[in-house]
User: Fold this.
Amino acid sequence: MSDIVNYHLTVNGVDYPVNAAQGRNLLSVIRTEVGLTGTKEGCDDCECGACMVLLDGQPVNSCSFLAVQAQGRAVTTVEGLQQGDEMHPLQRNILEEGGVQCGFCTPGMLLSATALLERNPSPTEEEVRIGLSGNLCRCTGYAKIVAAVQRTAAELHP
Amino acid sequence: MSFTIATTIDEALQALATGARPVAGGSDLVVGARHGKAPLPEHLVAIDRISELQCIDVTDLGVCIGAGVNHHIIEHHPLLSNAFAGLSDGSALVGSPSTRNVGTLGGNVMNSSPAMDTGSPLMVLGAEAELRSLRGSRRVGMADLWTGPGRHSAEADELCVAIHIAMPASRSNSAYLRLEYRRSMEIAVVGAAAAVTIADDGSVSAVRVALTAVAPTIIEVTGIGLGSVAEVAAAAAAAASEQARPISDVRASDKYRRHTVGVMARRAVEAAARRALGEPVSVPVNRAAGIGAAS
Assistant:
């Protein structure tokens, strides 16, 4: 019996038909079938957060989530954060604060931060650190990423 | 190969009866398959869209938590984090915010890891798992459910649909602490939960303590004498270290685990007692206790 499953995914508001093996994770389907490569494969073990996407607005490690289970739900990747021609305030602030070095963790950081600010518009530094705690960064030491999130919160909810 | 999405418990039970395995968040199943622990089952039934599994029903007698309720909800639920604070302590420590969004209580219980963070809280709270199949329904206490690392006594066609916990007596509460080396994506090095009832004279009139990651399953400590909070905390620490059967592995030696599980047991009794007396002790206790490196 074939293990290929046909279904649809909604990624950043766009409908994509998918034909993929039942056991494929959401990360690999987004990168290779949908063709959006902003979402990164880091540890492939649910530890590092490079693969973070939003599923109905909540952060999920896409490396460890079956793609077939995402059908009928809204998937948001880093490509979906941009607002028209403008960067999302989080994207602009993480650049301006110097919170990007190699950039590999950045998409996941941005999505976890998006979900955090949605849930908690004015987080304390401790709450930002907890909100980003599933996202590892080996370059920045986190301080500038945290500052970017707090700056965004202050801008959006002065 | 097959994949179906169930929207009712009955649909899920039909699928299990024909050999399918349930998947909710997939955080154990998918990671486990990649590690070669167990291949991804050929026939899967997704149970994350069954609204009946998402309920938290509170009565005077107790609470029924649907198996699909995730750790984020358990951490923040006003009643659970007050009356069943030890359980919220456990859920609040699971993985990261994303893990807590997809990881469910039922999944945690049925994965049956001896290191599971909700395990010892459920045991000291006297929780029961409701297992349902097309053949009927039954309730199983935690000590009878967990039979070994990753093993449980449920049949393959049984689905854990809910966890039932009786309402604690007045002046009672619980707490769970774990030793951790970092503050996220961590697994308990050791952990301990305590449920405590305080009598009118301030002494402990009832205590239960259970231990995490020091035996093939979560285990309950026996023979803790009653007395003042300090006496009971000291007795719990001694009994926990005595009754632990830890292994040495990459995370800690057996000797270190045996010692530190006693420390966790003592602190769990102390925190549960403070909560039972109405003092605010925030969830998770681990943060208030300063356990784990700064993030």
Remarks:
- Chain A touches chain B at residues 1-3, 5, 22-23, 25, 44-47, 49, 52, 58-61, 64-66, 68-69, 71, 112, 115-116, 129-131, 133-135 (CB under 8 Å).
- Chain A has a mean pLDDT of 96.
- Chain A has five helices and five strands.
